[in-house]
């Protein structure tokens, strides 16, 4: 949940990935798990990026866990597009934990409202967020307790409606990749259903290497394209783990888009400034 201050102030070697548009040959002097080696080589021998194989401009923003800053980063990306005067749509089909702390009987869809503002969308909130739940639980359990049936076709149609209006749409998931969102179905199943490339958001700090590599492993094994990984700095001071996370991930050739810096004053200006630390060339 996020509130925004809108004031001014096993080691193997693999020769290629068969489904890539270029002959993606892994560097032979690197011995890292094949699903983590993202270096690719084109037929003429030049390095190319998996990102360039993306033919669509809709991305699923997935976290390595809940509370890693998906909404913050997604909102910042939306502001980046607005600053570039490019139409941008945001879609958060599922949001839980919407009960107000002061007035528990009232619903406050803070994350969805935040994305709506960052993207400058005029669509009603119900088109940006299809399902919302009072309890701060995984959507599958929250929906069951609320007596609500979550429909993947409805989510897919909701996304299509936004894609008709916006060239680029960011779809934010709820929780981590394998968090249940409908019965035993997870965010992974939703990503498969929507057929979208993924941007992974991870929390900078101790444990992030494990969480990030596990998430990438699952995505790779399920043949889901990864557009990039963004590390989010959630504390003002940097620990040794914080400082070394990016370098270690680069040793695995993870497609790191950068580290989104800690934002003390969470306003549009500071969030937009944070995007300057990211490599956003993948967005056309």
Summarize the structure.
With about 280 residues, the chain is α/β, with parallel strands linked by helices. It contains nine helices and twelve strands.
What does this structure look like?
- With 284 residues, the chain is an alpha/beta fold.
- It has 2 domains: 13-48, no CATH class; 56-277, P-loop containing nucleotide triphosphate hydrolases (Rossmann fold, 3-Layer(aba) Sandwich), CATH 3.40.50.
- It contains 9 helices and 12 strands.
- The protein has helices at 70-83, 110-119, 125-128, 139-146, 152-163, 187-194, 208-221, 240-251, 268-274, and strands spanning 40-41, 47-48, 58-63, 88-91, 94-95, 131-132, 168-176, 180-182, 185-186, 198-203, 226-232, 256-260.
- A 6-stranded parallel β-sheet has the order 4-7-3-10-11-12, with helices on both faces. A two-stranded antiparallel ribbon has the order 1-2.
- Helix 7 links the parallel strand 10 and strand 11.
- Helix 1 packs parallel to helix 2 (110-119) and helix 1 (70-83) packs across helix 9.
- The longest helix has 14 residues, at 70-83.
- The chain starts with 39 loop residues before the first strand and ends in a 10-residue tail after the last helix.
- Mean pLDDT is 84; it is low at 7-55.
Largest sheet: 6 strands, parallel
Main β-sheet, spatial strand arrangement: 4-7-3-10-11-12
Which fold name corresponds to the CATH topology of the largest domain? Rossmann fold
First and last CA, distance: 29 Å
Strand content: 15-25%
List how many beta strands DSSP finds.
12
Task: Tell me what the CATH architecture of the largest domain is.
Answer: 3-Layer(aba) Sandwich
- Which sequence of SSEs, written as H and E, runs from N to C? EEEHEEHHEHHEEEHEHEHEH
Q: On the 0-100 scale, what is the average pLDDT?
A: 84
Helix content percent band: 25-40%
Would you identify the CATH H-level superfamily of the largest domain?
Answer: P-loop containing nucleotide triphosphate hydrolases
The helix tally amounts to: 9
Number of domains: 2
Which runs of at least 5 residues are low in confidence (pLDDT < 50)? 7-55
CATH class wording of the largest domain? Alpha Beta
Which descriptor suits the 3D outline? globular
Which radius of gyration do the C-alpha atoms yield?
Answer: 19 Å
* Structure classification: alpha/beta
């Amino acid at each position: 949940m996020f509130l925004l201050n809108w004031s001014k102030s096993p080691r193997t070697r693999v020769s290629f990935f068969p489904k890539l548009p270029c002959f993606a040959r892994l560097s032979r002097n690197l011995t890292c798990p094949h699903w983590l080696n993202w270096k690719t080589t084109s037929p003429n021998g030049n390095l190319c990026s998996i990102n360039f194989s993306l033919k669509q401009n809709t991305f699923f923003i997935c976290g390595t866990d809940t509370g890693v800053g998906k909404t913050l980063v997604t909102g910042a990306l939306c502001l980046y597009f607005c600053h570039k005067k490019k139409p941008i749509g945001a879609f958060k089909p599922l949001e839980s934990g919407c009960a107000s702390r002061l007035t528990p009987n009232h619903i406050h869809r803070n994350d969805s409202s935040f994305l709506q503002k960052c993207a400058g969308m005029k669509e009603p909130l119900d088109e940006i967020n299809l399902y919302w739940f009072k309890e701060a639980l995984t959507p599958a359990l929250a929906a069951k307790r609320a007596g609500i049936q979550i429909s993947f076709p409805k989510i897919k149609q909701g996304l299509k409606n936004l894609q008709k209006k916006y060239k680029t749409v960011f779809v934010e998931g709820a929780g981590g990749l394998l968090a249940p969102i409908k019965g035993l179905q997870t965010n992974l199943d939703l990503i498969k259903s929507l057929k979208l490339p993924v941007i992974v958001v991870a929390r900078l700090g101790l444990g992030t290497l494990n969480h990030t590599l596990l998430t990438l492993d699952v995505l790779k094994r399920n043949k889901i394209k990864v557009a990039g990984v963004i590390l989010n700095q959630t504390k003002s001071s940097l620990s040794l783990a914080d400082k070394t996370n990016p370098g270690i991930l680069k040793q695995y050739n993870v497609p790191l888009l950068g580290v989104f810096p800690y934002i003390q004053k969470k306003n549009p200006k500071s969030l937009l400034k944070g995007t300057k630390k990211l490599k956003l060339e993948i967005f056309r």
